[in-house]
Design a protein that fits this description.
The protein is α+β, with helices and mostly antiparallel strands and 212 residues long. It has nine helices and six strands.
């Protein structure tokens, strides 16, 4: 029974991704002879600016997200991607139910439920959310004890339940995702994940992501 903050990890990013995309893109113009050790930067910039985005569909990035179920339900709405997700049908949480702390709830990561119950002077938001999670956890375990399977007991688990989801998409789709999911109108929990991920990808492949 644990409270944690959301996380992500880049599992795969194609090596020499910019050089590879340049080699692919220049086939369209038969300008391979113009490739130099540093020519990829300007070429990819021109490709993106011109709207010739089919070129950047040839490279994929795979991310592992640890987030709540609500965020994962938003992620899987992106059609041009592949997903593998922790299953509440088959995973049995009788030994540890983990919840994701929303960014607007003032609780520390790693705090166990038993440590929190006797804390005095806690703000009402945190207390309300915490006790809702505790009730959901207790209800889930009770249903398991009644003999229900995990896929039946999961009916009482909330959106804040921790899930792990692997997402693979091509570069063009990731650019689309970041435009939507880092916008000010995006859900705060989605921005909490996507903003730092975008910053890291800007460092790894600035030519592709630095104009977002």
């Amino acid at each position: 029974m644990l409270l944690i903050r959301p996380k992500y990890k880049i599992l795969y990013s194609q090596p020499n991704i910019l050089q590879t995309l340049e080699e692919i893109g220049r086939v369209c113009y038969k300008s391979e002879e113009k490739i130099t050790p540093n020519s990829y930067s300007n070429f990819i910039k021109k490709i993106i600016k011109s709207g010739h985005h089919s070129v950047i569909e040839h490279a994929n990035i795979t991310i592992k997200f640890i987030c709540d179920r609500g965020v994962s339900h938003e992620l899987i709405r992106h059609r041009l991607a592949s997903f593998s997700q922790e299953s509440t049908r088959y995973c049995n949480y009788k030994n540890k139910v983990t919840f994701i702390i929303p960014p607007w709830i003032n609780l520390k990561e790693g705090r166990y439920f038993a440590d929190y119950i006797d804390t005095k002077g806690t703000d009402r938001e945190a207390s309300t959310w915490f006790h809702a999670m505790k009730y959901a956890k207790d209800s889930y375990l009770t249903l398991l004890n009644f003999g229900h399977s995990p896929q039946q007991a999961r009916a009482v688990l909330p959106n804040s339940l921790k899930t792990e989801i692997i997402m693979t998409a091509n570069i063009r789709e990731w650019r689309h995702i970041f435009k939507l999911r880092t916008a000010k109108a995006a859900h705060p929990q989605m921005r909490e994940l996507m903003m730092p991920l975008l910053e890291e990808l800007r460092e790894k492949a600035p030519v592709i992501f630095d104009n977002l």
